[in-house]
Design goal:
15 helices, alpha+beta, Beta-lactamase, 3 domains, Recoverin, domain 1
């Protein structure tokens, strides 16, 4: 099995006022706060480093990229949205799948695979990938852990999604904020914890903590749980420590349990899985999978936890995963939701006013839920279309839009997108 690696920096859940005014919601502007090391609200060429897409955005050649310049670059080749309130007609077929795959390939896409009614109806590999290539899912890995917690509830290892984390993390029992954190808060990224990306994110960082689980349970709690959505790795590494302690009775790691309880019964084989220096599997971002394997997992979710006539995890527990959270209706328990009032990893990723869909796909399919990772690795599940669609790739340095991809995939009246010119 071939494995494709690529390094993707994470980004903070921050917004820029200049972009909010312009209504831009694309990916490049959202990354500016991470790269802006000196906090002057612009990116110097030194801060840009070896990132041609950033250097190309410096249109006035003053040596800096502002939020406005980034927004202008992102909007140059955008496919026009239909007028608000006029949803596109959904008519997915071989022609629309090809247009979406062309768009994906133009933006460093590696694979597009579509399943309808449980059958693969489209499959294509580009840019050096093939069916045997296993790719890093990055943060789309989070999509495995809601079902794992559901399985642990069914197996009697956990009481409910609302079980206090301090029941297992007894060192939190007397903390004024951490004692109130539940598993639901962790899964919905609303626990109020510092994200500490410097020490918790990316398996190649020199600053990475040697034991990510232990480090995560020691980060500060800045807010009351349940109040604010904040994207980052800390909640899921805390969840990793909880699962690790719960599973000592079974002498399993969280990854062992995921495989034994869910992946093996549905015939999914993983590739490499990133571990920390202490041997703990990375919970928010460690998985490598082939496209067909990931598609099986999506199909299992679409089928409500049933596989070949057997209920692997209780359907009612899995249904809780796609209930909008209070802190961010665009996120459930480990899965992203195409909710009209939701947002992505930062506030600028929102639904345009008057659109009939949600923040992921603006023109409909509000039942869509997804696992989303860096490099624009995507697993979209659309129950109303009986569809699972995957897009795998490395689009850090190229523009890729979920909404554009899905309009190309699902509608017949969307023009083919050409790659941006530098």
């Amino acid at each position: 099995m071939k494995v494709c690696r690529f390094s993707i920096p994470s980004f903070f859940a921050l917004s820029l006022l200049t972009l909010a005014a312009s209504g831009q919601t694309e990916t490049l502007p959202g990354r500016l706060p991470l790269l802006d090391r000196d906090g002057d609200n612009r990116i110097s060429l030194e801060e840009a480093g070896d990132r041609p897409f950033l250097r190309a955005a410096d249109k006035d050649k003053d040596g800096f990229v502002t939020a406005t310049e980034a927004a202008q670059m992102m909007s140059r080749t955008a496919v026009p949205n239909p007028p608000p309130g006029e949803p596109a007609t959904l008519a997915p077929d071989a022609a629309t799948y090809k247009k979406a795959a062309d768009y994906s390939a133009e933006n460093n896409g590696r694979a597009v695979l579509v399943m309808r009614k449980g059958e693969v109806v489209f499959e294509r590999y580009d840019n050096g990938f093939d069916a045997e290539t296993s790719t890093h899912l990055h943060s789309a890995t989070k999509g495995f852990w809601g079902p794992v917690i559901a399985a642990m509830i069914e197996d009697g290892l956990i009481e409910s999604f609302d079980e206090p984390a301090s029941k297992t993390l007894t060192e939190w029992a007397n903390h004024p904020r951490k004692s109130k954190i539940t598993l639901r808060h962790l899964l919905t990224l609303s626990a109020g914890l510092v994200q500490d990306v410097e020490n918790l994110q990316g398996h190649e960082r020199e600053t990475l903590a040697p034991d990510l689980y232990r480090h995560a349970i020691g980060v500060m709690a800045l807010r009351e749980p349940g109040v604010q959505f904040q994207y980052g790795p800390s909640c899921y590494y805390v969840l990793g420590e909880i699962m690790k302690r719960k599973l000592t009775v079974k002498q399993q790691t969280p990854l062992d349990y995921l495989k034994q309880r869910i992946l093996n019964p549905i015939g999914v084989t993983t590739g490499e899985w990133v571990h920390d220096a202490s041997g703990n599997p990375h919970i928010p971002n460690g998985a490598f999978l082939r496209a067909k394997e990931w598609a099986k997992y999506g199909q299992w979710l679409l089928q409500g936890g049933e596989w070949e006539g057997k209920q692997i995890v209780r359907k009612d527990l899995l249904e809780e995963l796609i209930v909008p959270s209070k802190a961010n209706p665009g996120h459930g328990l480990a899965l992203w939701l195409n909710h009209p009032e939701g947002q992505g990893s930062h506030p600028l990723q929102a639904t345009p006013k008057g659109s009939p869909g949600g923040w992921i796909f603006h023109d409909g399919c509000t039942d869509l839920f997804a696992a989303l990772g860096a490099g624009k690795c995507r697993m979209y599940v659309i129950p109303s279309l009986n569809m699972v669609a995957l897009r795998m790739g490395d689009s850090e340095r190229d523009r890729f839009s979920d909404d554009t991809f899905l309009r190309l995939l699902l509608t017949a009246d969307t023009p083919v997108v050409k790659k941006s010119e530098p």
